[in-house]
Design brief:
There is one protein chain. By secondary structure, this protein is α+β, with helices and mostly antiparallel strands. It has one domain (27-217): Gcn5-related N-acetyltransferase (GNAT) (Aminopeptidase, 3-Layer(aba) Sandwich). The chain has five helices and eight strands; from the N terminus they run ββααβββαβαββα. The protein has helices spanning 39-51, 71-83, 131-147, 162-170, 199-212, and strands spanning 27-28, 32-36, 88-94, 99-110, 115-123, 152-158, 174-185, 188-198. A hairpin with a 2-residue loop joins strand 7 and strand 8. The radius of gyration is 19 Å and the shape is globular. The N and C termini lie far apart (42 Å).
Length: 231
């Protein structure tokens, strides 16, 4: 006879498969291709994607870097990102014209516990609020659950970053709270909003993304007909 523990404990969990860390494979979508970032391949296109359309540097307001005074400074930063492993950085590339228009990363990998975060996400003004932007995030989420086998996917952002918080909720993440005085970023206090998605949520979330991303859900100008939702 097995004795029950005297105090409440969590359910027994099968450990995630070993080696479930990003391996820098390309991630393919209908409109977007996510490629391991390369300074030689992507730096100039990435720089051109924001240098004229974001003169005030709004893209970088809540990030720990940017804006840059020159292409050379940006290129050097991309080279550092290219060499990084955890975070693992990807370029967001539009299939049409093969134009790099943003970046994101997988980070804080905790393979034994099946946890990872997506972050360092920035999108040029031309990518923001498009079906391509949504697909880029879907490709990252899908890779985490389908390829890496994570149990928990995290999204964190400055608590004052309203667009990022709205995006997290739109993409199916659940708000978990605020870490007060969590970081100092560019000399300013950052309270961090925490969001997460669990493996048990993924089937429902994936179905919602796949329905939304069907080509028939968009008009000739790429505008959605039905909103992204998860039943």
């Amino acid at each position: 006879m097995v004795r029950k523990p005297a105090r409440p404990v969590g359910a027994i969990v099968d450990p995630p498969p070993p080696g479930s860390k990003p391996d820098m494979r390309p991630l393919h979508g209908l409109w977007m291709l996510l490629e391991p970032v390369s300074a030689e391949k992507h730096a100039r296109g990435l720089y051109d994607s924001f240098k004229d359309s974001d003169p005030d540097g709004a893209v970088w307001t809540y990030l720990g870097y940017g804006p840059w005074a020159s292409f050379e400074a940006f290129e050097a930063w991309v080279k550092e990102r290219e060499a990084s492993r955890d975070p693992w950085f990807y370029a967001f590339v539009k299939r049409e014209g093969h134009k790099p228009v943003g970046m994101g990363s997988f980070m804080r990998s905790d393979a034994p516990n099946g946890v990872i975060e997506i972050g360092h996400i920035w999108m040029s003004p031309g990518l923001q609020k498009t079906r391509e932007a949504t697909e880029a995030i879907f490709l990252m989420i899908r890779h985490c659950f389908d390829d890496l086998g994570v149990r928990r996917l995290e999204w964190k952002c400055d608590a004052l970053n309203a667009p990022s918080r709205q995006a997290a909720e739109r993409f199916g993440f659940t708000f978990e709270g605020i870490f007060r005085q969590h970081l100092i970023v560019k000399g300013r206090n950052r309270d961090t909003a925490w969001y997460a998605m669990l493996d048990k949520d993924w089937h429902r979330v994936r179905a919602g993304f796949e329905a939304w991303l069907k080509p028939g859900n968009f008009d000739a100008k790429g505008r959605q007909k039905a909103k992204l939702q998860f039943d």
